[in-house]
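Summary of Year 1 activities. Much of the first year was spent building the evaluation harness for sequence design. The harness presents a backbone, in tokenized form, and records the residue chosen at every position. We chose the following record to illustrate the format because it has been used consistently in internal testing since the harness was completed.
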């Protein structure tokens, strides 16, 4: 990302740089399909930190068959009786896939812990075992990238108020978000302990300030591209073939209803 000023990034510059990065993401996609690459990307952060916007920026110009986004609903009764990380394992990437987790198994270290959906013993037990789980993921041949988006208090407040007042964004606001908003420092303590326990040599955390959404998106996409050893595959020149002749076919008004 070229811009390093404290000023907000202008839209034209953002769109120009994002266009270039989208081209590289397509190269990454084609490499993964060709080489059987496996990439797992985890996004965590406070409510309103911009995880959804980053994921949209990554996926808007690539194939959903290769770039899969996983955002699991609350666990079922059966899933609650399983080993905690078990329900996430079937979604890990196979060869030729890039899987993006919009929140992940780290729910246990964050929202579940702060909001009382698990006990302290369960949260601490998770933090003890998660490094070995991630080591197994990496040793299976997957590239595991973990990103934490950190938004400031004032910017989070602005975004939450925007969700309240903008009818296009009200769906983003849940009662849980309001409760989470009031527990800023509990989340800070949970984040700190999570980083201490799970920032390992084989699966490190990468943090980014996300008050400027555009800069954060470009920084994360650039980092993903620099973290995966993809190569641009050679492409044959493509030329559109000639269309067939009508051989007597005449256009008809084939539809009763047209929308304009």
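For this record, the design step produced the sequence shown next.
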């Amino acid at each position: 990302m070229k811009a390093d000023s404290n000023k907000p990034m202008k839209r034209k510059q953002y769109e120009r740089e994002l266009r270039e990065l989208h081209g590289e993401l397509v190269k990454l996609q084609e490499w993964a399909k060709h080489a059987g690459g496996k990439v797992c990307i985890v996004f965590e952060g406070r409510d309103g930190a911009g995880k959804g916007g980053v994921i949209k920026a990554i996926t808007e110009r690539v194939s959903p068959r290769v770039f899969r986004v996983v955002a699991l609903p609350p666990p079922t009764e059966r899933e609650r009786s399983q080993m905690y990380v078990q329900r996430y394992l079937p979604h890990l990437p196979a060869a030729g896939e890039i899987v993006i987790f919009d929140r992940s198994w780290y729910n246990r270290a964050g929202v579940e812990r702060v909001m009382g959906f698990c006990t302290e013993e369960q949260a601490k037990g998770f933090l003890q075992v998660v490094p070995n789980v991630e080591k197994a993921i990496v040793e299976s041949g997957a590239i595991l990238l973990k990103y934490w988006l950190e938004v400031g208090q004032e910017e989070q407040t602005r975004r939450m108020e925007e969700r309240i007042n903008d009818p296009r964004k009200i769906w983003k606001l849940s009662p849980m978000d309001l409760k989470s908003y009031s527990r800023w420092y509990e989340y800070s303590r949970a984040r700190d302990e999570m980083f201490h326990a799970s920032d390992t040599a084989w699966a490190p955390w990468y943090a980014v300030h996300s008050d400027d959404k555009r800069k954060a998106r470009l920084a994360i996409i650039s980092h993903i591209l620099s973290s995966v050893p993809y190569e641009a595959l050679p492409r044959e020149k493509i030329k559109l073939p000639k269309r067939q002749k009508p051989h007597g076919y005449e256009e008809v008004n084939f539809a009763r209803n047209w929308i304009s």
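The two ends are 41 Å apart (CA to CA). Quantitative recovery figures across the full test set are reported in Table 2.
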